[in-house]
Write a structure and sequence with these properties.
Layout: H1 11-18, H2 29-40, H3 47-67, H4 69-80, H5 96-102, H6 107-125, H7 146-156, H8 164-194, H9 198-202, H10 206-216, H11 220-248, H12 254-260, H13 262-271, H14 274-300, H15 302-307, H16 311-363, H17 369-390, H18 392-395, H19 397-410, E1 429-438, E2 444-454, E3 458-462, H20 469-474, E4 484-489, E5 492-493, H21 499-503, E6 506-509, H22 520-524, H23 533-542, H24 546-551, H25 562-566, H26 570-583, E7 588-592, H27 600-613, E8 618-622, H28 626-629, E9 634-639, E10 642-647, H29 649-653, H30 659-671
Helix pairs in contact: 1-14, 2-11, 2-19, 3-8, 3-11, 4-6, 4-17, 6-8, 7-10, 8-10, 8-19, 10-14, 10-19, 11-17, 12-17, 13-16, 13-17, 14-16, 14-19, 16-17, 23-26
């Protein structure tokens, strides 16, 4: 358990504490580009919805751009100033038919027609005049951290720049598209994490994995949209605005040069911040996952914390990690404030320069006051796309930091990458030939083990704590992979068979009982959902838990939510887990300390029943209690990762200086003080 500290952590310390298997956390320009490209390729899963959203989003900009500036010009020139329609100048060709219809009308009639156009625009796209646009943005209330921002963006959908009927349809489409996209990437990441080996998962904090699935993976949304939407829509709108302006004012090419020159300048200014955004974004996410992990560990060990009086220490750990997360997010926020202010200052400079140019034209009589209003609107539409493209790279860098964490986990090698051959039905058993196991940190768990176990036997793995019993058992379902030697099942190397067919025939009941928040029936049926009720009750009787379940008001339908499960004793949970393992009817059943929480009567009943169950399967028991071990067909005594003795309980006791006999004598003496 890490100690609480108020000292800021370095980026390396943050990454190391967040995850033991994600080592490479720095991102250069080439890797950033590769992450963007990989994220963008998810477009292929939703081509129709993506293109439809692209078209609707483009038109939500294009329609107001084509229409809205001209009512403002008509209002200023022909209603306020009273200039006759016949003398109108500075309009694009597609507005001329509307002007022809207004010709001969008085100011009030023109105003009525402009109001009618405004009402139509409001109903259809939510816009009717410059500065009065109704954007559709349905979001949840959230904070400034990545977690709440992510949930808000997913469930609020991708907002529409239009309102009215158009905006509602676009918002619905965008919401469905975003939720489908995030469901896909989350599902892929979740599946990959579940397929990692136990060795890898032991080095990975659960809280960090949760954070990556919940809050890092949705960062694909912005890349998914921006990588194509921004360049395409910006280019379209810029071209539309430019052609409209040049059509209405063919003698003013300066409009083009003023705005197009801003694009490279914006790109150059923001490029200086790209690496800092990626680095700070990565650190902020690591700090956020650290808080998630601390909460998860604290709640998972809440009984130990309370029993040892560790509430203050645990609160200190949480406070320290929470402060670090806030500190890191503030650094990200401050950086974005700096970037946005730099872009805004430059944007205002361009806008002022453009305004001065237009005023000069109006004062010189080359343009009307109405032209100033129309051109300032188009200036915004020209400047906006140029600025969006110029800032595209920097805008995606924070998203790149999140997606790096996603792809780093998805690129880890899964267990099922080893074998390719289906394992036939097991008939004989397990053979281990000169097997050794060395962990990545150099610890040797097994040392040249020879071991045979046959179908029809109960085999007990016995030895002191740390002898290597569990490590040996883990090799059979390939939870661990032997570093030397061969682990064979019916002469098939377990590394050569598919993981699915291997584990379909090997059931492992762990010492730490894991039950799901579901009914007792569903828990027992977890490995065999179609098992008939008669079989469920049969294995429950073998495990000695049927009478207890039957005594419950809802019987096998009793829900094991967090509250209900906590009311079960350790022994009751253990017996339900054993019943679940028996129901799976696999050819190899491995029980890790199956009787550690059972009373003597239930233990004797279980051991006797296991002999019946072992008639058509291999049962391997890891145990310390003599009452469980003594009835095994074969006992394998281990110490320091080696097999020292094999044989039945009676045979091994005949060895005067045998390791197993000494082990039994120690247990007997500890039970009978008079023997000491």
């Amino acid at each position: 358990m890490a100690e609480a500290t108020n000292q800021p952590l370095s980026d390396e310390e943050l990454s190391a504490r967040a995850s033991g298997i994600d080592k490479h956390t720095t991102i250069d320009y080439r890797e950033a580009a590769a992450i963007i490209w990989r994220s963008a390729k998810y477009i292929r899963f939703f081509p129709v919805r993506y293109v439809t959203k692209l078209v609707m989003k483009t038109l939500s900009y294009a329609i107001p751009l084509a229409i809205i500036p001209w009512p403002a010009k008509i209002l200023i020139d022909h209603v306020v100033l009273g200039t006759p329609i016949a003398e109108a100048t500075g309009y694009p060709a597609y507005v001329l038919p509307f002007l022809a219809m207004l010709e001969g009308m008085g100011p009030f009639e023109i105003l009525v027609w402009l109001a009618a156009v405004g009402v139509g625009l409001v109903v259809f796209i939510g816009s009717y005049a410059v500065g009065y646009e109704d954007e559709l943005d349905v979001r949840l209330v959230g904070g400034q951290d990545y977690a709440t921002q992510t949930e808000t963006s997913i469930h609020g959908g991708k907002e529409s720049t239009a309102g009215g009927i158009w905006g509602y349809i676009e918002w619905r489409l965008g919401t469905r598209l975003i939720e489908s996209l995030n469901h896909t990437i989350r599902g892929q990441l979740f599946s990959r994490i579940r397929s990692l080996s136990i060795t890898q998962l032991e080095d990975q904090r659960i809280g960090d994995s949760m954070y990556r699935v919940m809050y890092d993976s949705p960062q694909i949304t912005e890349i998914f949209y921006e990588v194509t939407h921004t360049p395409l829509i910006s280019a379209f709108l810029y071209t539309q605005a430019l052609l409209t302006v040049l059509s209405a004012y063919p003698g003013s090419p300066e409009v083009f040069w003023i705005t197009i020159a801003a694009l490279p300048v914006w790109a150059i200014i923001t490029s200086f911040f790209a690496q800092a955004v990626r680095k700070r974004g990565q650190a902020a996410r690591a700090a956020g996952s650290l808080v998630t992990g601390t909460i998860e560990e604290g709640m998972d060990n809440v009984l130990a914390v309370q029993s040892l009086g560790g509430n203050r220490e645990e609160r200190g750990r949480f406070d320290s990690d929470s402060r670090e997360a806030f500190r890191r997010h503030r650094r990200v926020t401050l950086l974005w404030i700096l970037i946005s202010r730099a872009g805004e200052i430059f944007g205002r400079m361009v806008e002022v320069a453009f305004g001065i140019y237009i005023i000069y034209k109006v004062v010189g009589g080359e343009m009307s006051p109405g032209d100033f209003g129309a051109l300032m609107v188009y200036m915004a539409y020209l400047r906006g796309p140029a600025m969006s493209v110029g800032m595209l790279w920097i805008r995606m860098q924070d998203n790149v930091a999140g997606m790096r964490r996603v792809f780093a986990m998805m690129d880890l090698t899964a267990e099922d990458d080893l074998g390719a051959t289906p394992l036939p039905r097991i008939e004989r058993g397990v053979q281990m030939r000169d097997v050794s196991l060395v962990f990545p940190d150099g610890r040797r768990a097994l040392d040249h083990v020879h071991f045979d176990a046959s179908v029809g036997q109960i085999v007990a793995l016995v030895g002191p704590t740390g002898a290597g019993k569990t490590s040996l058992a883990y090799l059979i379902p390939r939870f661990h992979v032997a570093t030397e030697g061969r682990v064979e099942i019916d002469d098939h190397d377990v590394n050569d068979v598919t993981l699915e067919t291997l584990r379909a025939q090997v059931t492992y009941v762990f010492q730490e009982t894991q039950l799901f928040s579901d009914s007792i029936l569903d828990n027992i049926r977890y490995g065999n959902p179609d098992a008939p009720m008669e079989e469920v009750e049969r294995v429950a009787r073998i495990a000695g838990v049927h009478e207890f379940i039957a005594s419950l008001p809802e019987g096998y339908e009793t829900k094991l939510g967090q509250g209900a499960q906590s009311k079960l004793s350790v022994g009751q949970k253990q017996r339900i887990a054993i019943a679940r393992g028996l129901l799976r009817d696999s050819r190899i059943l491995i029980l890790d300390e199956p009787t550690s929480a059972l009373d003597p009567e239930t233990e004797n009943h279980l051991v006797a029943s296991l002999h019946e169950a072992a008639k058509d399967r291999l049962v391997i028991i890891i145990a310390h209690r003599l009452s469980t071990i003594a009835h095994a067909d074969k006992i394998v005594f281990m110490e320091d990762g080696r097999v020292l003795e094999e044989g039945s309980h009676g045979d091994l006791l005949t060895r005067a200086d045998g390791h197993y006999r000494r082990f039994v004598d120690l247990q007997t003496q500890s039970i009978d003080p008079a023997a000491q």
